[in-house]
Structures are given as C-alpha cells and as structure tokens.
Write a structure and sequence with these properties.
about 190 residues; alpha/beta; Metallo-beta-lactamase, Chain A; 2 domains; 4-stranded mixed β-sheet; 8 helices; about 30% helix
C-alpha cells in the first residue's frame, strides 16, 4: 500500500491537493490509494489508461493541450512516444509538464539521467540503454518510434518552453542547462 503519513503531511502542508495525475500509461500504480486520501482531487490521466485499467476512476483524459491549469503550469501530450518492452512496442502517452515560475520541465519516462549515485546494477543498465550521465531517451524509444512526425512535433513543443531544469521519473534531476541536454538527447529526432 502507498499510504505514507510523512508524504501526506508534506503534501498537506503545501496546500490543497487539487489534482491526481497518472503521467503516462505505465505510472498509475498508487492512484486508487491516493484517491482515497484526496477524494476531493480531480483525477487526470493520459488517453488509453481507462481502457487499460477500467476499474480506475478517471475524471478527465488528457488530449493535446486540453487541460488548463492555473497560469503556473502548462502541459502537453507527448504524442508518438513509444517504447520497446520486449517483445512488443508499447504506446506511452506521456504527459509532460512545464512549471513557468521555476522554469522546470517535469517528465516521467521520455528521458533518463542516471549517474554514479545509483546502485551499480542501475548504472550498468543505464549504460546499456544509453542514458548514463546524459539526459536523453534510451535506444529502446528510438527503435520503437513509429510516428516520427508526431513525436517530432511533440518534442518541438516541449523544447519551445523556456526551461533550464528537468525533473524526471527515473534519474538525477538536471539543475542547469537541461534544455540544451534534452535537445542534444533528441537530436536524432529533431534534425
């Protein structure tokens, strides 16, 4: 079970939880438990999650740019983003967020940045997939890509935001020059 009093206290001290977000088709594991704690919050999910997990209560489904937050947060659907999870190619439908005031990009699986602070096995895996000490997608995403045009448009929109920092679901936060690193990591797609 997810329930962690310390985390709930931290969130409660920040203010009212308005939204619970499943950021892509792979990250929704504790959504039901969060809904029990924050029953007043609106649950947002990417396209396809309701079909994948019909028992989940979802209030709104993201489509390209249709959910409006306050003036501090923008979001976009990373269309065309897919990953090879042997033996199949899976659609990710990742929602990417941009926090304007802190110039921070928030991603989940569209890029990684593992370094020597992670366990040896993780470092080894990161080296194999090409995401060791580099903010970029793994080669598993490159070979899974089927709709290059949609993915190129999506990464173009993401790179149009004025961010300098990236927080990702897997890896070390990139505090400076993050936009340049992410652009370099996706050079194979945007060139």
């Amino acid at each position: 079970m997810f329930f962690n009093f310390e985390l709930v206290n931290v969130l409660d001290n920040l203010g009212t939880v308005k939204y619970l977000i499943a950021p892509n088709l792979f990250h929704y594991l504790y959504l039901t438990e969060c809904q029990q704690i924050y029953h007043q919050a609106e649950t947002l999910a990417p396209p396809g999650l309701q079909a994948k997990q019909p028992s989940l209560k979802i209030d709104k489904t993201f489509t390209q740019d249709d959910i409006q937050f306050d003036s501090q947060l923008e979001s976009t659907l990373f269309e065309g983003f897919q990953v090879l999870i042997f033996p199949k190619i899976k659609i990710v439908n990742e929602i990417v967020f941009y926090h304007i005031d802190t110039k921070t990009l928030i991603i989940t699986d569209s890029a990684f940045n593992f370094d020597n602070t992670f366990p040896f096995v993780t470092q080894l895996a990161a080296r194999v997939i090409g995401s060791y000490e580099n903010l970029k997608p793994s080669w598993l995403e490159k070979i899974a890509l089927r709709d290059r045009q949609k993915a190129k448009q999506s990464i173009g929109k993401i790179l149009s935001w004025d961010f300098g920092r990236v927080i990702m679901g897997h890896g070390q936060i990139v505090e400076t020059n993050a936009k340049q690193e992410l652009a370099a990591g996706y050079q194979w797609l945007i060139s």
